[in-house]
Amino acid sequence: MTVQGAAPPVKFAVVGIGNALVDVIAYASDDFLTEHDLNKGAMTLIETERAVELYAALGTAVEMSGGSAANTMVGVASFGGTACYIGKVNHDDLGDVFGHDMRAVGVPFIGGGIDHDTPTGRCIIVVTPDAERTMNTYLGVSSSLCIDDLDEDAIAGGQVLYMEGYLFDRDDAKAAFRHAAGVAHANGRQVSLTLSDSFCVDRHREDFLALVDDCVDILFGNDDELLSLYETDSLDEAIAAVRQRCNLAVITKGAAGCVIVTADELIEVAAVPVERVLDTTGAGDLFAAGFLHGLTSGKTLVECGTIGAIAAAEVISHVGPRPLVELRTLLPDG
User: Fold this and answer.
1) How far apart are CA 142 and CA 118, in angstroms?
2) What CATH number has the domain bearing residue 254?
3) Tell me: the pLDDT tens digits for 294-306?
4) Residue 19 falls within a domain, yes or no?
5) pTM, entire model
6) 3-state secondary structure 179-224
7) Nearest-angstrom CA–CA distance, 272 and 302
8) 61 in a domain, yes or no?
9) Cβ(192)–Cβ(215) below 8 Å
10) Which residue range(s) make up the domain with 228?
11) Residue 297: what pLDDT?
């Protein structure tokens, strides 16, 4: 591990670690959710047989490289920032597509490991007419990411390390998160975590709390995730708890905007209005991209929240979790 005092030059604004998945996105009715026993609005982990069954039932779908933290890194690059992504894929067709897609938008991809028997993961996303997204995720080889798959030089060269809570399901990944955070801190970098999903928080609450206490400088989550983390029905109580345990927390509240929590202040930032919400997939991912781009560019916290809101508004105005325009062109000075 590179030690403090010998930190390399900054190479990336943000380095992300997460589940490297291919997104399969399709429109369907609420009846489809009922017919296939899908938990509306949730992220459900599925096995190979279930993934094959749902994929066959969907019909027409859009396929693209995805995964929460990968979407965030693409967003950072779209703003003109530098980003790198660490995930795990198989050396199969979907794995090759994933790597090509990331590199094509200017994000170096570190795939980890060598040949694997387990296929590349994929996330089946069903979008209902109310724009709600229901995700069924086959993690495949992505969930086996471990310490050996990390690129310590890349982590040491990033201003901010961004870690995806969805990856936090297995002990190897938990160890990898802590190791990566140690590398980042040893080189004077900041460590951020996105809680990803309230169901994910429910499964691993104690481990998440310990990670936040020990390793995290910047916490991202929505209001439901924060309530789950601190087991309360009061957002005020959850905010009071997180400000005692984290230097900076950024809590999104959908159309109500976000609240930025520091030890000294609470900053409310409004959402950017959208004429028609078509798909909320990726809203949190792109909000984090905008916020981190602002932070690594020396912007104020209010400006960071506004840039995050701009990115979120763009992505929910169309189908798919990634921007359709260069996000840098949406900024006031773009």
Assistant:
1) 9
2) 3.40.1190.20
3) 999 999 999 999 9
4) no
5) 0.89
6) HHHHHHHHCCCEEEEECCCHHHHHHCHHHHHHHHHHHCCEEEEEHH
7) 13
8) no
9) no
10) 76-117+142-327
11) 97
Q: Do 111 and 99 touch, CB atoms closer than 8 A? A: yes
- Number of domains observed in the structure of the chain: 1
Element at 29 (helix H, strand E):
none
What Å distances lie between residue 71 and 22, 33, 163, 202, CA to CA? 11, 25, 12, 23
Q: Looking at the domain assignment, is residue 249 inside a domain?
A: yes
- For residue 201, CA distances in Å to 58, 104, 196, 322 come to 29, 33, 8, 24
Show the tokens assigned to 131: 């724009």
Select from 332, 18, 317, 331 the least CA-distant residue to 164.
18
Binning pLDDT at 50, 70 and 90, where does residue 8 land? Answer: confident
> Has residue 134 been placed in a domain?
no
How many whole angstroms separate alpha carbon 258 and alpha carbon 70?
Answer: 22
Question: Residue 169 pLDDT > 70, yes or no?
Answer: yes
